[in-house]
DNA sequence: CATGGCGAGTCT
DNA sequence: AGACTCGC
């Protein structure tokens, strides 16, 4: 069966959550309804609105309170709450009930979401045509049916009956199939209503994209057919972003790059055009969908491939201590257990993998997310397994989450904004004994499952014991805690030497360990070097090739500066000294006024002097809550120097964090690193998506103006931009070295900076880095992350020197 | 702080 | 394996 001649249907339940609520509570029938999510803020967030309420102006995105204003008599049933989070299981069950009805009509059913399913009914249509004459189709077989391009269904029926007499492009065979398809879909929808009481709408076309597209054109309780010859009419006014896959960033860049807004405008571009402007795959896909072609098959899938649950902890509700983390992971783990038990009983399958994901707030309020996976072994299935393993994964892989251990106050260093556990990679349970274990476990009865939770926390917490890693493996629930405190207990030991800040040697060791400490010297030097190069460059030079080509002198110095730089000595300075010292790093080049003033501006604007008296121990809880750059790294060492009698601090106006004076430079560089990362990302994106669109990738141009950075009167915003573009500027005559990391060709004399740039990317990525493998779970998760270490490998730069001299 | 909790799929 | 995108 040719893919282009399929009959594909999308069934979409009308305001599904509302219908479920109405069915469960018949008193609601006929009334305006909006389902709100538990969130008590301003009446809860509306996630579904029935059509009565829509008619009165209630929409999603509103809060419950707003809905009441628009429609005082509105009913606001709420999504139930279980374990502190929204519990949508009743909607999931209802969706499954519907899917079961759909499945009676074809096995080729793909559940697309809780309330949507694609059906490929090509076969049923062919079967029907064997015994049913299309000419006997009448409107009473097609209630609530619309055909795009026709005023009403009768006209479409008539067109089919007359072989499309009026239209040259009428594809009779295809239209006939769609018409029969529409008849079958009417029956399907009737069956759904009959058996579940739910109304739905449907789109009928020859592929998934189009079925989806037209399904929404007539709602509720309607179905819409899209004959081939109506596609262009539909496209002529259809915003491109309405098409599935084009509603996000990609669709936006397509519109920007091609300067179009409607689907029909895509048709003027050749396939090659589109492949050049985007990539091969996307170009071809765009070319085809512009002509109504979408070959993606309907997958036969009834059950979800993964089962997961997650929760956000936004803003003030971010998790700050170990207890909250444990609590929420327990709740999430319990939910997974519940749902997995049901799934095991219903589908006789077992997940082979678990993924725990989380995100933490950066000091500036943005967040970084991370995830770790674990492949189950057969011995894994024991009480509270998911919770324990999840906690283990989070704690184990995220040194940045290590607590600040002080006075029994067990705080997480980075506030957790999001937690999620999901399991997947299901395999069918065979008759073999091992895979049956999960069912055994779940069926074993409450005694085992409930596995009374001893109050293990308190005594363990205060007195962490040394533990033998091998023997405690997977033993009991205290295992996690014990392991945890073993780790966190090291902090004071590491801290001790640093208290005396004059001990340079100790500081250096710490600096080496901490990526963001390294960042300080890297970025200071990095920027400094750039300005130096610009100075040496003749200002009047006109061509790119004039950009100075001198040996990358400090390559090895820079590589090593993380280890031996004394930039990290800050002790005994005044605030202004520190600021000036930072600025001085950029003042060596008197010609680079912009950079100097910009940096000064940055420092002045972000650092608001705020001297605070601090006693030897942070009796004030707020003190321990200071979260700056290093807090997100694993380096607990520097933090704990609270023993100094008086600490001067600043408030960073970019991220509102309190920064101790000896971290001002680091902190400023940290913000710079974040900005650089963003730019690099944007650049990568534009290079990838619009490779041949010169307007989007100005950096790629080798035109004259791109080569005079020192004269560039750019403003603050463009300052870092110029740095980024500086890194990728290449000219034919420039000796280059291919970067092993990104494959780009980089001018030799900028190679060091280029490496530093990757360093910058890595730094921000490695907010959640894993500093060292832990033997205990070493078997669980592969961690062969290459070059995860922020410590520079001397290999690359040295190689670049060699190649420089060989040319 | 302010659509949240999903689930699928792609890229590297 | 993990980060990221898309859509409901």
Structural account:
The chain folds into 5 domains: 3-10 and 83-235, Alpha-Beta Plaits; 26-76, MutS, DNA mismatch repair protein, domain I (3-Layer(aba) Sandwich), CATH 3.40.1170; 237-289, 5' to 3' exonuclease, C-terminal subdomain (DNA polymerase, domain 1); 306-488, DNA polymerase, Y-family, little finger domain (Dna Ligase, domain 1); 514-575 and 584-601 and 663-807, no CATH class. The chain is globular and about 80 Å long. The strands form 6 sheets. It has a 6-stranded mixed β-sheet. Strands 11, 12, 13, 14, 15 and 16 form a 6-stranded antiparallel β-sheet that branches. A hairpin with a 5-residue loop joins strand 18 (647-652) and strand 19. Helix 23 (575-584) packs antiparallel against helix 24 and helix 27 crosses helix 28. It is of the alpha+beta class and 807 residues long. 42% of the residues lie in helices and 15% in strands. The chain contains 31 helices and 21 strands. The longest helix has 26 residues, at 322-347. It starts with 7 loop residues before the first strand and ends with a helix. It binds a DNA duplex (12 and 8 nucleotides) through residues 12, 37-39, 41-42, 45-47, 60-61, 63, 79, 85-86, 88, 112-116, 244-245, 247-250, 304-312, 314-318, 355, 357, 365, 369-373, 420, 422, 688, 765, 781-785.
């Amino acid at each position: 069966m040719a893919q282009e001649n399929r009959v594909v249907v999308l069934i979409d339940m009308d305001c599904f959550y509302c219908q479920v609520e109405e069915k469960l509570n018949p008193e609601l029938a006929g009334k305006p309804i909006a389902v709100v999510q538990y969130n008590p803020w301003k009446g809860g967030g509306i996630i579904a609105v029935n059509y009565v309420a829509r008619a009165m102006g209630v929409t999603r995105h509103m809060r419950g309170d707003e809905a009441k204003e628009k429609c005082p008599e509105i009913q606001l049933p709420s999504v139930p709450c279980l374990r502190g989070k929204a519990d949508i299981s009743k909607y999931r069950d209802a969706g499954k009930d519907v899917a079961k009805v759909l499945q009676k009509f074809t096995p080729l059913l793909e559940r697309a979401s809780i309330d949507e399913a694609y059906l490929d009914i090509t076969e049923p249509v062919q079967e029907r045509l064997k015994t049913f004459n299309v000419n006997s189709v009448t409107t009473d077989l097609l209630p609530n049916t619309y055909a795009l391009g026709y005023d009403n269904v009768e006209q479409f029926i008539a067109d089919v009956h007359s072989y499309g007499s009026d239209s040259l492009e009428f594809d009779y065979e295809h239209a006939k199939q769609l018409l029969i398809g529409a008849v079958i879909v009417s029956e399907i929808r009737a069956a759904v209503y009959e058996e579940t009481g739910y109304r739905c709408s449907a789109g009928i076309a020859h592929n998934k994209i189009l079925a989806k597209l037209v399904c929404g054109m007539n709602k509720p309780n309607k179905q819409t057919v899209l004959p081939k010859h109506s596609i262009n009419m539909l496209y002529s006014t259809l915003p491109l972003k309405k098409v599935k896959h084009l509603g996000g960033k990609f669709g936006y860049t397509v519109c920007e790059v091609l300067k179009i807004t409607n689907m029909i405008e895509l048709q003027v571009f050749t396939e090659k055009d589109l492949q050049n402007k985007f990539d091969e795959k996307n170009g071809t896909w765009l070319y085809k969908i512009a002509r109504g072609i979408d070959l993606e098959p309907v997958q036969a899938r009834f059950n979800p491939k993964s089962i997961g649950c997650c929760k956000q902890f936004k803003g003030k509700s971010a998790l700050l201590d170990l207890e909250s983390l444990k609590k929420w992971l327990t709740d999430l783990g319990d939910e997974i257990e519940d749902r997995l038990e049901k799934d095991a009983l219903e589908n006789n399958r077992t997940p082979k993998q678990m993924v725990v994901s989380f995100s933490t707030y950066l000091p500036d309020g943005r967040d970084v997310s991370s995830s770790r996976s674990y492949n189950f072994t057969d011995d894994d299935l024991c009480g509270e397994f998911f919770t324990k393993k999840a906690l283990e994964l989070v704690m184990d892989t995220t040194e940045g989450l290590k607590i600040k251990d002080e006075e029994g106050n067990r705080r997480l260093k980075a506030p957790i904004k999001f937690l999620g556990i999901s399991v997947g990679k299901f395999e069918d349970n065979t008759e073999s004994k091992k895979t049956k274990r999960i069912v055994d476990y779940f069926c074993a009865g409450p005694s085992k499952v409930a596995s009374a939770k001893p109050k293990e926390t308190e005594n363990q917490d205060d007195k962490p014991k040394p533990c033998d890693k091998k023997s405690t493996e997977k033993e009991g629930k205290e295992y996690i805690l014990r392991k945890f405190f073993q780790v966190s207990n090291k902090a004071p030991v590491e801290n001790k030497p640093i208290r005396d800040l004059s001990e340079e040697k100790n500081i250096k060791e710490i600096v080496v360990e901490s990526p963001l400490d390294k960042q300080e010297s890297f970025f200071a030097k990095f920027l400094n070097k750039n300005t130096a190069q610009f100075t040496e460059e003749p200002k009047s030079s006109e061509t790119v090739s004039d950009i100075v080509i001198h040996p990358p002198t400090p390559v090895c110095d820079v590589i090593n500066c993380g280890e031996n730089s004394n930039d990290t000595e800050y002790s005994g300075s005044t605030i202004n000294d520190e600021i000036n010292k930072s600025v001085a790093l950029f003042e060596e080049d008197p010609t680079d006024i912009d950079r100097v003033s910009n940096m000064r501006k940055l420092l002045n604007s972000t650092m608001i002097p705020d001297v605070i008296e601090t006693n030897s121990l942070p009796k004030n809880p707020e003190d321990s809550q200071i979260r700056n750059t290093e807090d997100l790294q694993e380096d607990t060492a520097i933090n704990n120097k609270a023993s100094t009698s008086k600490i001067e601090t600043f408030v960073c106006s970019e991220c509102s964090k309190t920064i101790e004076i000896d971290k001002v430079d680091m902190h400023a560089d940290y913000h710079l690193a974040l900005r650089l990362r963003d730019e690099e990302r944007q650049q990568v994106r534009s290079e990838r998506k619009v490779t041949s669109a010169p307007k989007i990738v100005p950096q790629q141009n080798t035109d004259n103006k791109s080569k005079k950075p020192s004269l560039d009167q750019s403003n603050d915003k463009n300052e870092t931009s110029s740095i980024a573009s500086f890194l990728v500027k290449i000219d034919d005559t420039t000796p280059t070295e291919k970067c092993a990391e990104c494959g780009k060709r980089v001018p030799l004399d900028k190679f060091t900076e280029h490496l530093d740039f990757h360093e910058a990317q890595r730094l921000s990525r490695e907010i959640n880095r894993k500093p060292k493998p832990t033997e205990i779970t070493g078997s669980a998760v592969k961690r062969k992350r290459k070059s995860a270490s922020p410590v520079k490998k001397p290999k690359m730069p040295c190689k670049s020197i060699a190649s420089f001299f060989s040319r």
